[in-house]
């Protein structure tokens, strides 16, 4: 299997963290890797990647990961990309691999799917996507990345490009697969509930466990459910896991996040310390209660292409979100 990986990066301080270098080294075992960061890098930072990747670039363009992937596609060219069996679209929003990538690649390569993602809830979560040669050659796929526009915030990027990519590939008749999907999570939790509870009981105080919530009917990347995902062999821990201020498990992550034992955990420790993401569990409990109250009195979210505002759980305003991704039929 000949793979190429386009890796999108970003750092507010213009540096390449050691966890990113480790991630790229691990991917380079399975693919030719190219790196593009949506930021201005400090002098010498890209030099760190020379022994690992086939090309490393950085420029502030403000079009998030899809913009960086598009930039790399322009630099490499679709003629060269089409020489590969698989194209990986990956970003630096997670730490990994907590479990070796070989297990995931072996399982997914054995499935007859045109596109697959590490995780998905009816759409391909874009932090780790693999597409086959047929999709690489598809003009509609190419056109998406040739016209990535800057958007106001990440939520619109998810709505327009992440979900939009899945929608267009589905409309084109391509078959999807997921290494971790809701059905797999739900089945694993039912079969291993006692093991999950034992892990929590041994590592998290009872008073804090009372406020923890497990809803294993979806793939949730930023909540306490992540414990279950890593028990299943999820290779990547998303950094957003530490940014959600009501995630109790984040305070005990070294004890409850399950790895295969090979990942150097100090890489995660160093990054969350630099980004000031550490917080005590008691603060997470208080934030969880405050967030429940806030969402009861006021909440807005995108659903079915509409931005819905609720007050006291009652919808009071709804408007169409017009940023749907479109491609021409030419």
Strand-helix topology:
Blueprint: E1 3-9, H1 18-28, E2 32-37, E3 55-58, H2 64-76, H3 78-81, E4 86-91, E5 94-95, H4 101-109, E6 115-119, E7 128-132, H5 133-137, H6 139-146, H7 154-171, E8 176-180, H8 182-203, H9 206-209, H10 226-231, E9 237-238, H11 240-243, H12 253-256, H13 266-274, H14 281-297, E10 299-303, E11 306-311, E12 314-320
Parallel strand pairs: 1-2, 1-4, 2-3, 6-8
Antiparallel strand pairs: 4-7, 5-9, 6-7, 10-11, 11-12
Characterization of the model:
The protein is α/β, with parallel strands linked by helices and 330 residues long. It folds into two domains: 3-180, Spore Coat Polysaccharide Biosynthesis Protein SpsA, Chain A; 182-294, no CATH class. The protein is built from 14 helices and twelve strands. The chain has helices at residues 18-28, 64-76, 78-81, 101-109, 133-137, 139-146, 154-171, 182-203, 206-209, 226-231, 240-243, 253-256, 266-274, 281-297; strands at 3-9, 32-37, 55-58, 86-91, 94-95, 115-119, 128-132, 176-180, 237-238, 299-303, 306-311, 314-320. The strands form three sheets. A seven-stranded mixed beta sheet has the order 3-2-1-4-7-6-8, sandwiched between helices. It is globular and about 60 Å long. The two termini are 31 Å apart. The mean pLDDT is 91.
């Amino acid at each position: 299997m000949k793979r190429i990986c386009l890796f999108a990066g970003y750092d507010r301080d213009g540096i390449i963290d050691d966890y990113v270098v480790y991630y790229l080294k691990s991917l380079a075992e399975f693919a030719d890797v190219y790196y593009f960061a949506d930021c201005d890098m400090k002098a010498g930072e890209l030099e760190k990647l020379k022994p690992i990747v086939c090309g490393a670039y950085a420029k502030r363009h403000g079009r998030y990961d899809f913009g960086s992937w598009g930039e790399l596609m322009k630099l490499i060219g679709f003629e060269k990309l089409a020489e590969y069996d698989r194209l990986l679209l990956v970003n630096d929003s997670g730490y990994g691999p907590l479990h070796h990538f070989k297990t995931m690649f072996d399982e997914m390569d054995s499935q007859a799917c045109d596109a697959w993602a590490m995780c998905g809830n009816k759409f391909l979560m874009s932090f780790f996507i693999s597409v086959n040669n047929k999709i690489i050659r598809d003009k509609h796929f190419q056109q998406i990345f040739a016209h990535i526009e800057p958007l106001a915030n990440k939520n619109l990027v998810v709505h327009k490009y992440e979900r939009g990519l899945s929608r267009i590939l589905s409309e084109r008749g391509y078959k999807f697969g997921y290494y971790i999907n809701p059905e797999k999570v739900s089945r694993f939790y039912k079969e291993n509930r006692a093991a999950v509870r034992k892990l929590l009981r041994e590592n998290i105080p009872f008073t804090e466990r009372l406020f923890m919530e497990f809803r294993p009917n979806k793939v949730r990347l930023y909540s306490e459910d992540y414990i279950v995902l890593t028990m299943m062999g999820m290779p990547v821990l998303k950094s957003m896991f530490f940014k959600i201020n009501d995630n109790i498990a984040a305070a005990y992550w070294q004890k409850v996040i399950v790895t295969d034992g090979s990942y150097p955990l100090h890489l995660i420790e160093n990054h969350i310390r630099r980004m000031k993401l550490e917080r005590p569990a008691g603060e997470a409990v208080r934030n969880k209660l405050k967030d429940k109250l806030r969402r009861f009195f006021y909440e807005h979210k995108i659903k079915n292409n509409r931005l819905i505002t609720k007050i006291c759980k009652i919808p009071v305003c709804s408007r169409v979100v017009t940023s749907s991704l479109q491609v021409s039929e030419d």
